[in-house]
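Onboarding guide, step 5: your first structure request.
Type a short instruction followed by the sequence, for example:

Predict the 3D structure of this protein.
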Amino acid sequence: MPSNPIQRKTRNSFLLGMLIMLVIAIAVIAVLYFTVLSDVMGDVIGKETGEITIAYRLTSEIKSGEEIKNNKVEQVKLRTSELPQDYIPVSVDVSSYKSKVTLKAGTILSGSLLYQDEMVANSTRLMEYNMLTLPSTLRVGDYIDVRFTMPSGQDYIVLSKKQVMNIQNTTITLYLTEDEILMMSSAIIESYVMKASNLQAVQYVEAGMQEASTPTYSVNAEVYQLIMSNSQKGINIEDYAKINASYNSDLRKTIEQELGQYAGTELTNIQEGIEEQKNTSMELYLSGLAGY
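The system replies with structure tokens like these:
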């Protein structure tokens, strides 16, 4: 019995809809199948041919000289051809490295971008100083030189490339070895004697890329002998080049001549400087206790 036109139209529409749904379902299944197959085959081929490698990628920006912390990296699978030749393998603990330059998120870590600090010496101590002139842009983690400027305009490097571990008001915290502590103490006392002198912190621009400057400040004979005596007693003072440079007889004569202009006022100037230093330290300590 022939169907009427309305029934035929309805049946044809239904069949067409079913056909379209079937085609769509087949297409979706095919896409999923080939996607999964591609991933599986890629891993298999990668393992067999070495084309796929796991490397470290930054998840956030790292500044020059900043430590590479584990929470700022992720592991990613990439083809070996896409990686730098000196990429850092995931078998290496990247938290022991620092960045030479500022790195953007998404950067693959490689040896040419990173460096490691030297081992901490046995004589290293955490020292606080509040008599330095600090740059307005100084932040924790930055690297500085400490420079001693005399009234005559002569300028000497006392400490070279030290990382700022903490800043509180005008007080900064540095890790220093025994010889550096003695050199710094000498420079502080002499800056107190010469009232128009200045001890200042000077920032590095790209700490990861820039080499440490060479200290040029020369200690007096007594401090030099103390440094050498500590070395002979077994205190870990490893930078002998710096020790030898810290006593330059010609340079020392220049500093002594400058100090000689303040004869008779040395003790007064030193006392005033030390009292100011102690008062600043006490105020900072008491303000810290108030937070407990």
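Each response can be followed by summary notes, for example: The two ends are 97 Å apart (CA to CA).
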